[in-house]
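Hi D.,

Good news: the full-assembly prediction came through. Inputs first.
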Amino acid sequence: MNFAKKLLWFLVAALGAVGLALIATARGEPINAVWLVVASACIYMIGYRFYSRWVASRVLGLDDSRATPAERLEDGRDFVPTNKWVLFGHHFSAIAGPGPLVGPILAAQFGYLPGTLWIVLGGVLGGAIQDFVILFASVRRDGKSLGQMAKEEISGVAGVVALIAVLSILTIIIAVVGLVVVNALKASPWGLFTIAMTIPIAFLMGIYMRYIRVGRAMEASVLGVVLVMAAVVGGKFIGESHTLAPLFTFSAIGLAWMLVLYGFAAAVIPVWLLLAPRGALSTFVKLGTILLLAVGILAARPTMLMPPLTRFIDGTGPIFAGKIFPFCFITIACGALSGFHALISSGTTPKMLSKETQARMIGYGSMLMESFVAVMAMVAACVLKPGIYFAVNSPAGVVGQLPEKAVATISNWGSTFSVTTQDMSELARNVGELTLYNRTGGAPSLALGMAHIFSGSLGGSLVMGIWYHFAIMFEALFILTILDAGTRVGRFLLQDFLGQFWKPLGRVTWYPGVILTSGIMVAAWGYFLFQGVLDPLGGINSLWPLFGISNQLLAAIALCVATTVLIKMEKGHFSVVTMGPLVWLVSATMTASFQKIWAPDPALGFLAHARYLVNQIASGAIAADKIAETQRLIFNDRLDAMVTLAFASLVLVILIESGRNWWLYASGKKRVVLYEAPVELSKLPA
Amino acid sequence: MHVEQKLRLGLKNFLWWLQEVFGDAEYEKYLRRASAEYRRAQPHGNCEHHCGPGTVSRQQFYLDRIERQYARVSRCC
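Then the structure:
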């Protein structure tokens, strides 16, 4: 490295340090969001340039003379050597979903500092490393999946745990993101109209790509975006129409039923009609909006009104209960360290990598980009007045059903949180909503933040409603893509599993089997969705931690596989690279699991909440007509405790299995067998 | 190179990138590959209209591609 480059990197480091010092030490005086963006960008650049490079060369020993599976097994279908920038786009759009947007919004209840530090440091040292090493491991094994690698490199038990983890996370994630959509669209005719219109728009795009211009997804997406934007603008008139608005106004229960029906239909109808066009549209909108958000933040340079730390670091938060450790690290998974990414890194991406060294840019770089999206989501949440943020995100069961009660409760938390009913009414009117109270789930507050940023640099408050509903459409589109694609993948996994017991169930063309397995999958996530919808505490308090724990269960499997691979490659002395994030993650996941099950505080512990409700019934505090509903809540609490216990037990199983193997290798009692594909020299140009 | 030329080139590259990410040119790539394979196997054959028994129509190729894509985890949270 020459002097000029050294100087440049020194300046990047210095700028990052100044930014970090500013955001970490600001007390009492609001800081500009640009500092958050600058500090994060500098840390990402340094992490990418130095840490990932060291891991690539010293730890993994990436070797471009070695042919990748895309070259060796090229078939023009799955295995295709792909341009690195194109593969970066593919991989990034596959890993970036609603998670990095919603998680930081919820974690903002602690203030912006804990979440931002976790996003940036967790991303650089944990999440990006996990994605990178798993991608590398899969490339060296002909693109094998995480489950296959766990089975071969650790043990058969680990493979079974991986399959259970994948099915569990699919179920929980669909339920929780479904809940986010329901809470964003309830009593919102403008929002519901816009989202409803994306279905016929997807059909049109599907017909275009199937019959008119076959396979031209980009052209169809441009057409789709134009129509969706027309729907966003047109939704304003629907929302204001006394005749049409009631047709698009539904309660949370009604919307939950619609989602269930939609998920079932999406899993059984031809993929070309809905899933493929919606996926393309979602990718297009996602890339555009993320770019727009980055430009918007730099153009508007908004001030962060949320303090760096709030009083809720003590665990008494209204959005979800629990202290910073472990709940900040469970709440923000995607954006910092997400096990789900390991499925993508061991899915299509390793089959398309032209050269081994590109794994660094694709695996590590894409994750940093997603982490940056999470920082921007944090900015969007924290530019709102804290009182407004909490009024939107707090459930009625915590702050009160009536607006006057809600603002009084929130304002009583201190001057930082002061909010009035006028503030809330004016904001709701500006964005074309009837009310913004108790909109738990994060999507509405993210949309408000984005609308604030966009309207600050483009259009002013006059178009705030358009931007708000554009942001809601953007999030719901993401979420429905997960919901429909996830239900279908779950159906395939179930068919694969059940087909081992009765062959016809495994046939993907046998309609009764398709209907049955789709029904099971939808019933599973639908149950948790309704649980969240009916929960007086808003559902997020119970479901989001379940999602975080299941996601980190998958991350534990991925990091155990990664560590095992390093040990088998005789790189055990570098295993701290994967073992460090694993130790942190297991500490957070196990602590969170323990607290969610056994904490004595009813707001936090599932069993304590069940006991509290049992005592309420016994003391006669529950009205007779509410007893059946309360008993269902008690059952749900106990079910959630069981599910959490199951996840924590699976983490322990995978740790014990991995630890046993590591000890056997270290003591020489077990022969090391590395299941890498045979080495073949690459003929592709560098 | 003038700024205008640079911008035009940048835009062209960006559009190419978008098309590749969306897989719009996948079928053409598939045909090129099939054609190359056919030429390797039959150096004197004509691959203008027929590139061997494995070649499928554009529509079939598209349907196969999206069926495979949506049968596995292809989207994260």
